[in-house]
């Protein structure tokens, strides 16, 4: 009797798992059939970033994915027939799209979720061409009517796709400096442009006094521009904003200034914001002798 009871239990256990497997199979088959029978009801384009500007609009997105027009949209077609990975790759060919994700919701609406690239600087080449540069060193086309306030860099010559190690270091400094300028309303208002010299050093043209500010190869922007702000306070007390033609910030704890017109070499100290002293060396501008 005991053996017979064990046999019955084994048979019941097998039947139980067969029923569970059949149920799961039935549900899977039903889900597949439902998906195959489901048709795309519409398309929703959405941006998942917090940018205050849009370099893309819904129609451009649709035109990028389905360039042959509205009659090629998947609306009314089986959701299972939509190759979403292929559509993502198609949309990501647009230089302004950092990442694209396609998915269907429970109402069979096709969502196009986009992360837009974020430009950090406006660059101009020797030839006069202009681009936006983003934080991943991508050059982005300037669109008609673009109204983004960004620091301007001139004499830009780097092709990010072919950048050498030295070029990559320059790109990193450009992005870093641009972010610093944007973070401070004073420098955003005062710096007209930053020129990239042929030796990869940087120099800025400012509004106050029209001086050229030599930045060299450094990137400790907060300290450098802190020195410049200290100098500006000193110049403001004197009231001679056009006194200097060049201000050089490349040296540690020292500012070298070239006067517009003077034959004297003058050196003095200006109290810095960090309670140290910045040595200011004033030189004659040879062109003014």
Task: Provide a descriptive summary of the structure in words.
The protein starts with a helix and ends in a 5-residue tail after the last strand. The strands form two sheets. The protein has an eleven-stranded mixed β-sheet with strand order 6-5-4-7-8-9-10-11-12-14-13. The protein is elongated, with a radius of gyration of 32 Å. A hairpin with a 5-residue loop joins strand 9 and strand 10. It has six helices and 14 strands. The protein is 33% helix and 29% strand. With 289 residues, the protein is α/β, with parallel strands linked by helices.
Query: Assembly state here?
Result: single chain
Pattern of helices and strands: HEHHEEEEEEHHEEEHEEEE
The largest sheet, given as strand count, sense and whether it forms a barrel, is: 11 strands, mixed
User: What Rg, in angstroms, do the CA atoms define?
Assistant: 32 Å
According to DSSP, the number of beta strands is: 14
The largest beta-sheet arranges its strands as 6-5-4-7-8-9-10-11-12-14-13
Percent helix, as a range, is 25-40%
Computed structural class: alpha/beta
Q: Averaged pLDDT, please?
A: 82
Helix count, per DSSP? Answer: 6
- What ranges have pLDDT less than 50 throughout 5 or more consecutive residues? 262-277, 285-289
End-to-end Cα distance, whole Å, is 122 Å
Note the overall shape: elongated
Strand content: 25-35%
Task: Chart the SSEs and their pairings.
Elements: H1 2-37, E1 42-47, H2 58-65, H3 84-91, E2 97-104, E3 109-116, E4 119-125, E5 130-134, E6 139-141, E7 152-156, H4 165-183, H5 185-190, E8 191-196, E9 202-206, E10 212-216, H6 221-238, E11 244-248, E12 254-259, E13 266-271, E14 277-284
Parallel strand pairs: 1-3, 4-7, 7-8, 10-11, 12-14
Antiparallel strand pairs: 2-3, 4-5, 5-6, 8-9, 9-10, 11-12, 13-14
């Amino acid at each position: 009797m005991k053996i017979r009871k064990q046999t019955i239990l084994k048979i019941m256990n097998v039947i139980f798992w067969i029923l569970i497997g059949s149920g799961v199979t039935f549900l899977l088959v039903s889900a597949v059939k439902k998906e195959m029978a489901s048709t795309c009801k519409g398309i929703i384009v959405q941006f998942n970033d917090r940018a205050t500007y849009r370099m893309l609009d819904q129609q451009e997105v649709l035109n990028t994915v389905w360039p042959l027009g509205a009659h090629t949209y998947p609306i009314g077609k089986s959701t299972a027939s939509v190759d979403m990975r292929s559509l993502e790759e198609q949309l990501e060919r647009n230089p302004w799209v950092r990442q694209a994700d396609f998915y269907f919701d429970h109402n069979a609406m096709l969502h196009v979720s986009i992360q837009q690239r974020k430009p950090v600087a406006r660059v101009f080449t020797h030839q006069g061409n202009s681009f936006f540069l983003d934080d991943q060193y991508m050059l982005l086309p300037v669109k008609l009517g673009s109204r983004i306030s960004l620091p301007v860099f001139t004499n830009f010559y780097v092709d990010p796709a072919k950048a050498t190690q030295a070029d990559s270091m320059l790109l990193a400094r450009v992005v870093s400096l641009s972010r610093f300028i944007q973070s401070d309303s004073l420098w955003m208002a005062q710096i007209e442009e930053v020129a990239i010299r042929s030796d990869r050093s940087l120099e800025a043209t400012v509004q106050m006094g029209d001086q050229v500010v030599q930045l060299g190869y450094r990137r400790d922007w907060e300290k450098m521009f802190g020195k410049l702000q200290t100098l500006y306070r000193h110049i403001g007390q004197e009231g001679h904003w056009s006194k200097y033609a060049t201000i050089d910030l490349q040296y540690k704890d020292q500012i070298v200034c070239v006067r517009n017109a003077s034959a004297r070499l003058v050196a003095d100290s200006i109290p810095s914001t960090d309670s140290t002293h910045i040595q200011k060396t004033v030189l004659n501008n040879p062109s003014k002798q």
